[in-house]
Amino acid sequence: MTDGEKLDGKEMPNLDVKYLRGERDFKTLTNGRYVAANSLLILVDGENSGEVFRTPIDGYQGSTFKQLYINKQMLTDYVLLVINLHRKALRENKVGSAIPHLNKKLFKAIQVPIPPYNEQRKIVDAVETIFKNIDAIMENL
């Protein structure tokens, strides 16, 4: 986890939680921490700490985020599935009293099994198929 490079004087969107959730249009800032399109941001402050977003456009990272970097030898979608398995534990073990924060020690302790890359792809495909089937079942209830 890291922050983006600090930039000043360039007008760009503020990539905050409400924008990334599609709840509102972005606001424009003239300085901040630069984040490239398709980057991963992890929410580190607030009730939903541990939630991960993929940035749709270039912009400045919101103040409640850190950039998440995944080793290029790992399939990003596979690592995100593993992180998602721990989402409840991350949510229930925040630190801080006034504003809850992601327990970074707990987050960094997540063990990610590393099968061969092709196996990672098969696992992701299988999980996506299961989720599609669940969605189809829910639509027909």
Description:
The strands form 2 sheets. Strands 1, 2 and 5 form a 3-stranded mixed β-sheet that branches. Strands 4-3-6 form a 3-stranded antiparallel β-sheet, with no helix packed on it. It starts with a strand and ends with a helix. The model has no long low-confidence stretch (mean pLDDT 91). The protein is α+β, with helices and mostly antiparallel strands and 141 residues long. The protein contains 5 helices and 6 strands. It is globular and about 45 Å long.
Briefly summarize what is shown.
With 141 residues, the chain is α+β, with helices and mostly antiparallel strands. The protein has helices at residues 17-20, 76-85, 87-92, 104-108, 117-139; strands at residues 5-15, 28-35, 40-43, 52-54, 59-61, 65-68.
Comma- or semicolon-separated keywords:
3-stranded mixed beta sheet, 5 helices, alpha+beta
Write the layout of secondary structure elements.
Elements: E1 5-15, H1 17-20, E2 28-35, E3 40-43, E4 52-54, E5 59-61, E6 65-68, H2 76-85, H3 87-92, H4 104-108, H5 117-139
Parallel strand pairs: 1-5
Antiparallel strand pairs: 1-2, 2-5, 3-4, 3-6
**Helicity level, as a percent range?**
25-40%
Q: Approximately what portion of the residues adopt beta-strand conformation?
A: 15-25%
**How far apart are the first and last residues' alpha carbons, in Å?**
41 Å
How would you describe the oligomerization state of the chains in this entry?
Answer: single chain
- What is the overall number of helices? 5
How many DSSP E strands? 6
- Main pleated sheet: 3 strands, mixed
Class by alpha and beta content: alpha+beta
Order of helices and strands: EHEEEEEHHHH
The 3D shape can be described as: globular
